[in-house]
Amino acid sequence: MTKKEYSRYVDGKSPDSPIGKDMLMAFLFGGGICALGQALGSLFRYFGLDSQAVGTAQSVALIFLGAVLTGLGIYDRIARIAGAGTLVPITGFANSVVAPALEFKAEGYVTGTAVKMFAIAGPVITFGTVAGVIYGLILVLIR
Q1: Average pLDDT of the residues in 96-114
Q2: Helices H, strands E: what count in the chain?
Q3: What DSSP assignment string belongs to 62-116?
Q4: Which are the contacts of 91, defined by CB distance < 8 A and separation ≥ 6?
Q5: pLDDT at position 16, please?
Q6: pLDDT at position 65, please?
Q7: Residues with Cβ < 8 Å from 73, sequence gap 6 or more?
Q8: How far apart are CA 26 and CA 85, in angstroms?
Q9: C-alpha distances in angstroms, 6 versus 3, 16, 17, 66?
Q10: DSSP category for residue 2
Q11: Range in 14-18, 34-38, 108-112 the model is least confident about
Q12: In terms of CB atoms within 10 Å, which of 10, 30, 128, 143 comes out highest?
């Protein structure tokens, strides 16, 4: 089978993706999550937190909500509709840590949950940290 024949075969078997609808849902749900974060920030400011504490409280609250919704199986149902809109915000990070931990809990707390917890988020954390160090070194060398 040539590459062209294989490409035609795959195109025939693959369902068409409604890209317009997918983009709209990702925009609406991702924006909704960000709007929720903004509303939480306003609420925390109302209760007297300073700017730095507000940012921390927003992050903690959104991570907590993402983890709880993942544990209850709700986040995955939202993600089926929202698509990439649930991946980008901080709640997607919580989901990427909690989901593998729940999936492998039957294998035990150490060999299942602890080992698999960062299977998805680990590379993101690692390369984010490495990139931060490299950017910091470049900034130090430029100054």
Answers
A1: 74
A2: 7, 0
A3: HHHHHHHHHHTTHHHHHHHHHGGGGTSSHHHHHHHHHHHHHHTGGG-IIIIIIHH
A4: 33, 62, 63, 65, 66, 69, 75
A5: 80
A6: 93
A7: none
A8: 4
A9: 5, 17, 19, 40
A10: -
A11: 108-112
A12: 30
Share the mean pLDDT of the chain: 87
**Mean per-residue pLDDT, 108-127:** 74
Residue for token pair 């903004």: 38
CB 26 within 8 A of CB 83: yes
54-64 mean pLDDT: 93
What are the boundaries of each domain within the chain?
18-118
Six-digit token pair at 8?
Answer: 């035609």
Q: Which amino acid is at 40?
A: L
Q: What is the CA radius of gyration of the chain?
A: 20
Percent of the chain clearing pLDDT 90 (strictly above): 48
